[in-house]
Amino acid sequence: MIWVEILSKHREVAGRFRVDAADVRIGRGYDNHVILDDPYVAARHLRIFRDDEGRLVAEDLGSANGLYLDRSKSRKPQLILDGSQPIRIGQTWLRVRDAGHDVEPERLAGRERGVLPIAAAIVLGLALLVIDAVKIWLGQTSESHLSDYLVPSLVLVGAVVAWVGVWALLSRLFAGRSHFLRHLLIAEAGLFAFWIYSEAGQFASFALTWSAISTYGYVIAWIVLAAIVFLHVREVGRTHQLIKGAVVGLLLIVAIAVQTVQRSEAFANSGRADVSQVLMPPALRLAPVRDDQAFFADIARLKARLDADRAELKPAGVER
Predict the structure, then answer these.
(1) Mean pLDDT calculated for residue range 269-274
(2) Which residues fall within 8 angstroms of residue 210, CB to CB, at 6 or more apart?
(3) What does the pLDDT average to over 28-49?
(4) Nearest-CA neighbor of 196 among 230, 219, 216, 224?
(5) Which residue stretches of the chain are H helix?
(6) Helix (H) or strand (E) holding 60
(7) What is the DSSP string of 180-207?
């Protein structure tokens, strides 16, 4: 007895046929044991039989489109079947097994999804809401109102749900399962990582006078976004990971380059450098305080450089 399974593009069983013959014929014609409605399959396309060792063998019967192992592009006249890897004829994937094929152990009901991912999603979500509320409270200069906290929280929740919903829909279309919880964890972890860098960058920019953190903060933002997108794409489909990573990396480089050009042009037009936009308590200032003598010494050196530049640009023959 031989079982022939027709698989969907998600590798799910779309049809299963039991054949009691020792020599199984598969094709589009009505004289086959298994009939496929695939225009790229020949009338008599494939033969399944057992060799001298009792192994199942698939043999191409001279079709125009041939026989292939799973996604391989190498055409095979014959294939020894192991019951695990599917074969492809035309645009149809098949899996052939005998009655003695071992199946996976049964799963325990209610334990397919662990408690830890759900708890992590809840904790991260609450942490993001608390962080958003604290930032609003620290930035308030007038009397607090409930709407000041409620509206931004609803906007944040709505944006996250919409973002995760789009990726879950893509996973459902291309992978057969939505993986909503996984996409939610990816989005929440990405937002949390971005918040950590933002707060740490603001502190370092103020406390240590590291202007580079403020100047190139957009680079980190793009990197975090690219990492989030790659993890989402990885959940949509686990194949071609290198190609997906290369595409995301290329888009990341383009985005950073475009914004770098825009910022350089804006600086050329305005002539104002980026500085820390957040004022913190003086106790958090870690960089050493400079006295007035050091400040005026820098002014004197700057004035000397300006006078030298004026002297070089002054036309010849003009007296001072």
Answers:
(1) 54
(2) 204
(3) 95
(4) 224
(5) 115-139, 146-175, 180-207, 211-215, 217-236, 241-270, 292-313
(6) strand 56-60
(7) HHHHHHHHHHHHHHHHHHHHHHHHHHHH
Q: How far apart are CA 95 and CA 11, in angstroms?
A: 10
CA angle (224, 278, 205) in 5-degree steps: 65
- What are the two backbone dihedrals, phi and then psi, of residue 31, each rounded to the nearest 5 degrees? -95, 15
pLDDT at 176 over 80: no
Q: Report which DSSP code applies to 317.
A: T
* Distance in angstroms (rounded) separating the CA atoms of residues 237 and 240: 8
What span, in angstroms and rounded, lies between the C-alpha atoms of 248 and 254? 10
Q: List all residues 6 or more positions away from 31 whose beta carbon is below 8 Å from its beta carbon.
A: 25, 44
Phi and psi angles of residue 22, each rounded to the nearest 5 degrees, phi first? -80, -20
Strand-pairing partners, residue 25, are 47
Amino acid letter, residue 62: G
Query: Is there a contact between 1 and 47 (Cβ–Cβ < 8 Å)?
Result: no
Instruction: Give the whole-angstrom CA distance, residue 311 versus residue 166.
Output: 63
Going by DSSP bridges, is the β-strand pair 24-27/34-35 parallel, antiparallel, or unpaired? parallel
Bridge-based pairing of strands 2-7 and 13-19 is antiparallel
What is the side-by-side strand order in the sheet with 24-27?
34-35, 24-27, 46-50, 56-60, 78-80
Number of Cβ within 10 Å of residue 76's Cβ equals 15
The pTM score is: 0.59
Q: What is the rounded CA–CA span in Å between residue 308 and residue 110?
A: 79
Q: Is the pLDDT confidence value at 272 over 70?
A: no
Residue 29's pLDDT band, with cuts at 50, 70 and 90, is very high
Main-chain phi, psi angles of 3, to 5 degrees: -105, 130
The two structure tokens encoding residue 36:
């496929």
For the chain, the maximum distance between any two Cα atoms, rounded to a whole number of angstroms, is 111
Q: How far apart are CA 85 and CA 94, in angstroms?
A: 9
